[in-house]
Design goal:
Blueprint (H helix, E strand, L loop, with lengths): L21 H18 L4 E4 L17 E4 L17 H10 L2 E4 L2 H11 L6 E3 L20 E5 L8 H14 L4 E5 L6 H6 L6 E4 L9
Parallel strand pairs: 1-2, 2-3, 3-4, 5-6, 6-7
Organism: marine sediment metagenome
Keywords: Transferase
Pfam families: Glyco_transf_4 (PF13439), Glycos_transf_1 (PF00534)
Length: about 210
């Protein structure tokens, strides 16, 4: 998506080490702090936060901080999120001067869970992601059900798979397409009463494949 950036945007990419690489993470945080101070912004906008960078937020206290909270708490079964300690994420959330969430229900969760004042939480609906012109010529197929996205317990894929016999009893031509990646997919395959009714793409699906 670099070609879509306005020339006025000063993009400064940085390496992102594994979370368990403490020395490299510390060096990354130091690099970002140095870049921020050199740029001297009027405001900092942080997306969700980061296990290591959150700990450095007090060092940027002179800059107003806007933080977008996508997930106020870890989702059930999301093993990937376990690498980010909830207490550290909460610490970052509470450092924000203003908070953005993508739904009214999420706003209430932030108020109830974190005690953040309602008046500094702003609800901004989520925009559509990806290239809106990609695959615009695709024709929809009849009797096709699509599950698309991260495959973790909280997404509820289990219930769609278990509902397949009920669905195909009413619509015999129905097929279910599952596209995405996440936890071990073998447990979901074992749930399939009629595996031939499913088309599975257990992988990250890029814009070009959508």
């Amino acid at each position: 998506h670099l070609s879509m950036l306005d020339p006025a945007v000063d993009l400064q990419p940085f390496g992102k080490p594994r979370l368990r690489q403490a020395f490299r993470q510390t060096r990354m945080v130091h690099t970002i702090l140095r870049c921020v101070r050199r740029f001297d912004p009027d405001v900092i906008h942080l997306q969700q936060g980061h296990l290591w960078f959150n700990l450095a937020l007090p060092l940027l206290g002179r800059f107003p901080l806007v933080l977008t909270i996508h997930d106020p708490k870890h989702h059930v079964g999301d093993k990937g999120a376990r690498n980010h300690l909830q207490t550290v994420m909460d610490f970052g959330f509470r450092r924000a001067d203003e908070v953005i969430v993508h739904g009214r229900r999420l706003k209430q969760v932030v108020v109830d869970r974190l005690g953040i004042p309602s008046e500094i939480i702003h609800v901004v609906p989520h925009i559509a992601l990806g290239d809106d012109t990609a695959q615009s010529h695709i024709r929809e197929e009849d009797h096709l059900i699509l599950f698309f996205g991260r495959i973790w317990e909280y997404k509820g894929l289990e219930y769609l798979i278990r509902a397949e016999p009920l669905i195909t009893a009413q619509v015999p031509e129905a097929r279910i397409v599952i596209a995405g990646k996440g936890e071990d997919f073998r447990r979901y395959r074992r749930m399939m009463v009629h595996p031939e009714r499913f088309v599975v793409h257990n992988e990250y699906v890029s814009d070009s494949k959508r």
